[in-house]
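Protein details
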Amino acid sequence: MPTWLVTGGAGFIGGNFVLDAVARGVRVVNLDALTYAGNPDTLASLRDDPGHVFVHGDIGDRALVSRLLAGHSPDAVLNFAAESHVDRSIDGPAAFVQTNVVGTLALLESVREYWRSLPAEAADAFRFLHVSTDEVYGALGATGRFTEASPYAPNSPYAASKAASDHLVRAFHHTYGLPVLTTNCSNNYGPWQFPEKLIPLVIAKALAGEPLPVYGDGCQVRDWLFVSDHCAAIRAVLANGRVGETYNIGGDAERRNLDVVEAICALLDVRRPRVDGQPHSALIHFVVDRPGHDRRYAIDAGKLRGELGWMPEYTFERGLAETLDWYLAHQDWVGRVLDGSYRLERIGVAA
């Protein structure tokens, strides 16, 4: 049974990855700081599972990370830990630098020391996989897609902090030989996502009969990736990716933000019709755009397909329907994660 140290494993993507990994027989040591977006409820099914060890702590705590590495001898470290919401980075960029840059550096230092202490065979097999975002590449025009060779041009404090962490990971490979892998993914969606992100936010507001905020003209384009497809891609990269390489992960599902909101509304019209008989789309409300809002992202995942044979299983329509049904069935979870620090209000409007 392999052992993986997963950081940020109580968050959205990390939590889905941990649930799947444990179900596949992997022993997971899960380190999470449990900030507002990290929720232990996501891991409730693993509470008594011997294949899951949860540790409340920060990736920047080098003493703690070193103890976990020495005590559990993981075969791989997968770094999901990050501040990840662009709007929050506009209001408070310092927290993003602290976690995504300073925290990643501390984690890399601890992992490098651990890797250098391993016997030769174990050191050769060890991997550090860093999970990043397509936002490091900046914005696209009307055509084209990001590839692994696209230049970095981050436009938000969040994207800049993730770009810095990517560069640190690359530097630790080229300078120290640390066997790293980096993945840059497009917009994820699916179960357990904190309701500040577009899809769960729209679902929550629509169910409450509140206006559905669409930034600017709603024509910003994103490539949508169902979270279980993302997890499968990460497993493929960890198993067979070439050390030192970057792999872009995309869902091949470009949609305008307005199209996404309207698709959610159409599904809700069938599953939860409004009592006044009006369509949910009547709640759509255009609001002032996000400062520096990138117009379009799109991922070319050809390298991942060609080298590792990965393909997304979910169409956007299937994934969105399953996501909506999950949220409808888990309104208790939504209620618990919406504490007093966040109540679906608009954030990230400071110019």
